[in-house]
Amino acid sequence: MTTLIISLVGLLMLHFTMQKGFSRYVAEVEMQRLDVLVDGLANQYQRYGNWQDAMNASVRSGAVPYDRVKRRWLRYQYELAMRRSLKRRLEERYSRGNPAHGSYLENGSLVSPLSLAPLLMDDQDAGRAYLPPFQQSGPPPMMPGLDRLELGKRLVLYDAEGSYLAGLRAAEDLPKRSIKLNGKTIGYLGLQPALDPEDTLSVNFFSAQSRYLIWIGLSCFLVSAIVSSLLARNFRRPIGELLETASELTHGNYQQHIEIRRNDELGDLAQSINQLSTILYQHEQSRRQWVADTSHELRTPISVLQAQIEAMLDGVREATPAHLQGMQRQVLTLKKLVQDLNELAKADVGQLQCHFRLCNPWIIVLQEVESFEHKFAAKQLHVNLVPPTHEIELCIDPDRIRQVIANFLENTRRYTNDGGELALSVEINDNTWQLHVDDSPPGLSDEELERLGERFYRVDSSRNRATGGSGLGLALSRQIAEAHNGQILFDHSPLGGLRATLCLPIKPA
């Protein structure tokens, strides 16, 4: 439709412009043939000093009506200019020794242009030429073929201000050519267009052109329709595949992918949808794993409590303090698990509460190491403390940081072999305060290091509770570090085990 509208508007404008400007264009082309006349008129003006005297000098008797002089003088000047131009061409041609060239037939016999030489005037005679007697109907007939376009009948002369002087009285808006003498404009020569848009020939010409333009417009519309159809098909097919894939994603089919290999925006959109599908699939798998792990972690202490309570109700086990303490340990485990889940849920929605204040984090490290002293002694772990080179205070939440350090120490106690080693050191640079917690073997593989910090992920795949926890401690520790604008990194320890690094910014949180 856009191409059709543009074509129609363009064709209408072209047709209108052709009707209005074609005849003027033809007249401007004809004006290029009037160089000799322009030069002759400039000579006449130079000879007499003004147009009035130039026209009066060509009249034998002063009784001649001036309006008739205006009508006939310019035409006669054109005839004189044409004769002068023809004489020059004949002289040049016959000076080269080719008298037969240029002859023409008149009354059945070959006539040489040299026989017409007496009718031609030289430049001096042209300036003194008189108009023929006004009793005649007009100037004497011109030589055959001298004015085939009848330019002399359509000439108009204007002065330097654009006022009419001589020639045909016609419309004001005519093609004009300036007449200059010594670089100064002394007048304008106008030419009435020979074509009339209203005559039969012009109407037929413009009608034929209109038909051609219509066919051109229809051809352009047809070609554009074909090209548009091909382009639309080229775009519609991948868009349909994108819609189909999006519909599959809304129905939960996150393994749906699009095979579109394009270098345009549709190709970029297809690649983005494929990436979105992969991310949604990973999130769905994580969600399912989260639900399964949560159910398992909750089910285990509940099952133990249920078995102990049923044993007491059946009389198999007595409600002794030892048995009640075992049940209490399961309740505490369940409470810790629920509390960790609650903290992680708050961190996911940005509601993890932290109460910041200035304090020395190394003091918190020493306090936690002291609280774990008896546990390390039970496994014969040797603790090596490397204090920082200088004390520094950070804007942190002491209880949350204490929770992270306690988690590091508990993991070390739980997974390090008996008789192993634990080292805690601090590294301070311009921007961060870093606590390195290194332990001795066993170590972890690179793949296991990448997964540390995932929820419910534990290195021991057997899920043995003799050594493994719930798998939420490191995940919650990462959330706490991020709430302090810091991070937790895992790497291989120089002691052969795991290095856990807590990075906290020195600038106020």
Account of the protein in words:
By secondary structure, this protein is α+β, with helices and mostly antiparallel strands. Among the domains are: 1-92 and 150-197, no CATH class; 354-505, Heat Shock Protein 90 (2-Layer Sandwich), CATH 3.30.565.10. Helices cover 52% and strands 14% of the residues. The protein is built from 13 helices and 13 strands. The chain has helices at residues 2-31, 35-48, 51-56, 66-94, 123-127, 200-250, 265-313, 321-348, 361-371, 373-378, 398-415, 446-451, 473-483, and strands at residues 104-106, 109-111, 155-159, 164-167, 176-181, 184-191, 357-359, 382-386, 394-396, 421-428, 432-439, 487-492, 498-505. The protein has a five-stranded mixed β-sheet with strand order 8-10-11-13-12. A hairpin with a 2-residue loop joins strand 5 (176-181) and strand 6 (184-191). Helix 9 packs across helix 11 (398-415) and helix 11 packs antiparallel against helix 13. The longest helix has 51 residues, at 200-250. It is elongated and about 150 Å long. The chain starts with a helix and ends with a strand.
How many strands, which pairing sense, and closed or not: the largest β-sheet?
Answer: 5 strands, mixed
N-end to C-end Cα span: 61 Å
Number of helices: 13
CATH topology of one domain: Heat Shock Protein 90
Assembly state = single chain
Mean pLDDT: 76
Rg over CA atoms = 54 Å
CATH superfamily of one domain: Histidine kinase-like ATPase, C-terminal domain
Q: Helical residue percent?
A: 40-55%
Q: Based on the structure given, which CATH architecture of one domain is correct?
A: 2-Layer Sandwich
The low-confidence parts are 100-130, 133-140, 461-468
Give the CA-based shape: elongated
- Helix/strand/pairing category: alpha+beta
At the first level of CATH, what is the class of one domain?
A: Alpha Beta
Strand content: 5-15%
Give the beta-strand count: 13
How do the strands of the widest beta sheet line up side by side?
Answer: 8-10-11-13-12
